[in-house]
Records
---
Amino acid sequence: MFFKSWIFIEFLKLRFTRILFRNHSASLQHYRWRKFQSVLKKSPFYRPFILNDSSLVNLPIIDKKIFMSNFDKINTIGIELSEALRIATRAENERDFAPMIDGITVGLSSGTIGNRGVFLASKKERVQWVACILDRVVGFSFKRRKVAFFLRANSNLYSSVQSKLLMFQFFDLLEPLEVLLEKVQKYQPDILVGQPSLLIEIARKKEIGKLTISPKKIISVAEVLTPEDRDFIQRIFQQTIHQVYQCTEGLLATTCKNGVLHFNEDYLIIEKQYLDQSKTRFHPIITDLKRSSQPIVRYELNDIIHEKKTCSCGSKFLAIDSIEGRSDDILVFNSIDGAQVKIFPDFFRKAIILADQRIIDYTVVQISTKKLSVFVGNNKELEDKCLISINQLLEKFRVESIEIEFVKEKLHEKATKLRRIRNESK
């Protein structure tokens, strides 16, 4: 009972703070940064950088490699990486996500093997996360609602949402798709949460009458939601598709009533590392002013963010026009002049979908600087149109002749994130 009451208190604090600092997020960030320095003094990694009222710019910018190699020093609760990995890996292998370390939830990110992050969450942080989910994702209601949550792995963090008013059911993506569809049909959720590749499968089944669920809200997580995937799901379910931008580094952004993602700048400080001269793309550098067990400070993500200058919802929080993918999925070629050419994933996405409106499922995988593997369905006509469109794109960037191989199946491993455009040549 105490846990649920604590969540309600944090929920009210979020609402009150948002109203009080509606147009003054910078003041709120400054206040919280000053308080947050007492947390950083407990971190062996950050302690040397913290003086009295230190400026954020005095601290180093780090990335995932630095973060994981300093895991033991960064966290403030003395948990070693080896122990955290042991608990989290056992949970995944046994599909039992209850074990914790001294009351601390431990989880793995859904990255590739050898490149996966480890997150820690204290009881207080679990409370704050649930309060934010209630406030900005599922919404608070006195009506009893059922949530169907599709993901690769469960967590104490996610199951904390469970209450008398909000029934939470985890659907394991490692199970066969037909089994999952049968279960969700029987469950009849009010809120459907899953990655776009799974939501598309559900939408297709609904379109042909094989599934008769009618959720009141659909939330996309884990993968990039492309405009064409969003439009398809919205057309089938006749509603705005919402998103949650969350990773090992925290709950970063949620959608407003218009379906536009906004960074949670009431507790995040977002710096931008621009990637192009036009300053249309940037890497977000994240500082989370609420993460105390595992501080996230000036952490540069390799996600490619397109900024949206304004949103009609009225929120002053930084809006996201789109998440293009990751920087390590920028495709790299040689030009006819011998120079290196880098092409952002979004150029290939547009080349594919504009080739023919019937193309709704596709992948482009770079095998080497001279070879692409492309899937657009087992259709020779679509492949021919796609070949012309891709070659036109490559000619525009003066890329030397490359081999384009069309495959009959997507290169996508079950229960992993679907990345439609990716570079596997490294």
---
Amino acid sequence: MNLYPLLRPLLFSLDPETAHEVTLKMLNVAHVSALGKMIYPAIEDKPVNVMGLSFKNPVGIAAGMDKNGDYIAALAALGFGFVEIGTVTPRPQPGNPKPRLFRLPEHQAIINRMGFNNMGLDHLLNRVKQSSFKGILGINIGKNFDTPIENAVDDYLIGLGKAYTFASYIAINISSPNTKNLRQLQQGDEIKSLIAALKEEQLKLQQEHGAYVPLAIKIAPDLTSDEIGHIAKLLLEFEIDGVIATNTTIAREMIAGHPLAHESGGLSGAPVKDNSTLVVRGLAAELQGKIPIIAAGGILSALDAQEKLTAGASLVQIYTGLIYRGPKLIEEIVKSL
């Protein structure tokens, strides 16, 4: 039963951040009651092995939907093959001032400048412990806004160390446009130092815990082909397990003339689709199948997902597509595979 077309006008009448919170709470109620079984579609398994992990299907929820790990099982019940929570920072932080989330329905897009608002790593890990979810769980980690960029590696190492035994894989977010100077970590020597430190720590943690937890680096859609090439070489050099392409974009030419085009933050949804696919294609050419790509950005239909997979991705993630299309989108994509 697809109730979302009936619910969407009501949700879109609310402030976007309020609608986000209301939606998650409604999902949770449905999940813990008999209602969930009535309205959630039974999605056929389409198993795929990526990063040494077995996914029940290749469609995941991207980070940002559940920053604190409060709704893991409820989101998984929609039929996702994997759930990625966060971005979480070592210490709690409020994020940027409101308003910080904007809908652009004419473009099937969202602009957000949330700024890693979250309740901190300890809260998230407690929620993971309490969750009944047994599937593939990614934990997306970032740095606190007030940690100087030259000390950013310390925050990522704290995140990696604490989250290691709780995650199926750990995503390293160095591409959000909403934390000052964060994207600098994708450049030149800075990304090399960060990746080297993370890889060294990952191998130490593997020895300590007797288990290997894969690392995936999340990058921006606004990189040049030279920058994509540089990152790909480092991913290969340090044997990083995966790459997520892409985060939101700071570009605005796709929505030029829209009254909200001037709002700062990351643009997601349909306008970022082509740039994200170009990054996936560029990475695929450089990586030659040696490192898997998780594609995100502008997936609002089964066709969009197929485009990403054809470009070289092994898995896809949705976020804005879920807001505009509802849970039916997951079923559509999985059926098309």
---
Amino acid sequence: MKVFVKLSLKICILALALSAGVLFLGCSEKIPSGVTVDGVNVGGISYGEAAEIIRKDRDAELAEKTLKIVGKEGEYVFSYPEIGYTDNLSEILRKAEKNGNYASVTRFYLKSEKEILGYICDRESRPVREPSFTFRKTGDPFSYDAGEDGKVADFNRLSADVSAALNNGGSEVTVYSSPVPRAKTEQELKEQTALLSRYTTYFDPSKLARVSNIRRAADILNGCVIEAGSEFSFNAVVGRRTEERGFLPAKIIEYGEFTDGVGGGVCQVSTTLYNAALLAGCEIREYHPHSLPVSYVAPSRDAMVSGEECDLKFAHSSTLFIRSETGENYVSFSVYGKSDGFEYSVETEVKETIPAPVEEGEVAREGAPGLISEGYIVAQKNGVVTKKLLRRDRYLPQKRVEVSE
């Protein structure tokens, strides 16, 4: 249902007969004989009398004149005293010569037109609402809003149409608008938030302290947004692994041995994220291998973090959105962003096995061999496959202890 809007203007109006806004100086002076204006003989009478006679019909027309402006957002109706007129009657009468025949020019107008039409155009215009998305830590990673094109009402055309309607016998004009298209599309946003990679590693759920540390670190990383070209730092985001921050003592690898330390298990989180980053096409700027092979990834696919010195750092040409998930026995990372067009995979090769040293002792220990391994990133695009050496690592053996008889 259309809404009719009546705009009230706080304008002091003189008299209806003086709506043209013209006062005559020396109005008692007589007009030369034989002068006609708009077919009216005004010769021999005063300027004021002549103006009143000539404007009588004009004032009657003004009293009946209405203007309706029709827009998509409403209708706007105007009449006297919001409508006025001007004429050149004052100039004609001042310059009139004996027996002269003259025609005056009248122009009707909307008072405070600039402000009124500006208000209407503002109401009839609509700003562009660009497509947008929301990134969430749980549930569907993204929700999308398609946005809406905008429109701009044509002020100049409306002004011209109002003038034409008031002066050419019209009573209704339409507000015309030009569309303002969105700069982006929803599809472009979806391309910028596509799933680039997902990587999962598994753990023993019975090791409760270690599992707690994994969940703690993964939860901190969940929902992380890495701006295009910015460098991600695992240590900067996760922070120090201390009991005050909710991390528990669990087994860690230190100097080629398994020992107790606060935050054990966090390296599995950094390793899982490292592999997800590799598969997403990230540039790895810092990583560190463990001193011993780990059970949850193949050699040359681990990324140890420790204190402030050993960090995991990477970057990507597009903005990345990180989601983590921890189940009963797994931790998983998903990386979203704009693809560079390549499909990535990682290959590892064990180049050499390092035998475990053997020594005698009171408590037997099985020991394990060390390794020398290499990791490769494989990129495929348009049927072309390239394979590049990423890293070469040396993992220490664990000595075997035999009990002497």
---
Amino acid sequence: MHPAKTSSDEDLVRERRALGDLELIVCSDGTYVLDGGAMFGVVPKTMWQKRMPADEQNRVLLGLNTLVVRTGSAVVLVETGIGNKQSPKMQEIFQNEERLPASLAAAGVRPDEVTHVVNTHLHFDHCGWNTTLGEDGVVRPTFSNARYFAAAGELAHGRLQLERDRVSYLGPNYDPLLASGQLTLIDLHGAGGFTPGDARLRGPEALPEARIQTSAEIAPGVWVEAFPGHTASMLGVHVEARAHGGATERACYIGDLIPTHHHLDATWVMGYDLDPLTCISERKRFLEQAVAEEWVVVFPHDHQVATARVVWNEKGKAVARD
């Protein structure tokens, strides 16, 4: 057990925050552990361990943050944690807690009222509770009335099952959604040229043709933007609301472009990132706008700081302000 690991009910709902006339709630699938060196890539341990102490096995403690957006007409979930389908071996490795259902209940969010679910990408620790393994051994969609959204390029990449990252792409997290007709695949502006019957999206089993969407909007006030680097097709999820006085406020769930507030330094990229140079460039692009416009940034894997507005410090580095 990681020395900092906790399981108290106080951690079920990480944060509640108003964004204009919307409500943002950060729920949690609990914590898990990953190798600290992998989380910080080429950054020396002597530097990163000052920010995130590692245990005796060099693991750091991470969160699994799900953003709930209540708009009045929609209940949108961004990311769904690791879920309950991990093998005993994987559970032993990651020590994940399977807490999202309890967290949503504590936040007053019923599974049947969720209208939209967005995955920034399809790694197992971002889409696990898309589906649930029942006591009867059948995997079913967790949110029966929701439309699910992910990038078409993500599914196409996952279908390749490449040695570099095939362990991260698990069909039971998304294939049942194709089967139920609930999954919409986003191909922004048609740039990938994906079609419903595209061979790049086909799995080993007979599944219905995919639904393809080329526009960015998920629901009124919620839309996606491409932020490649961690994966080639990763999405960030923007939330915009009208504040008192007519101004707008924005939040962004940035996905694994910036997994924790410790990764706000543009060059502190992960060993997991498929294209670290693109990550650095995309982080800089994101931070320029997020700082200038005072966005609320939601960090997917930060167990300490779930959300923050970001500012430049006296050295010109991006840091979490609140």
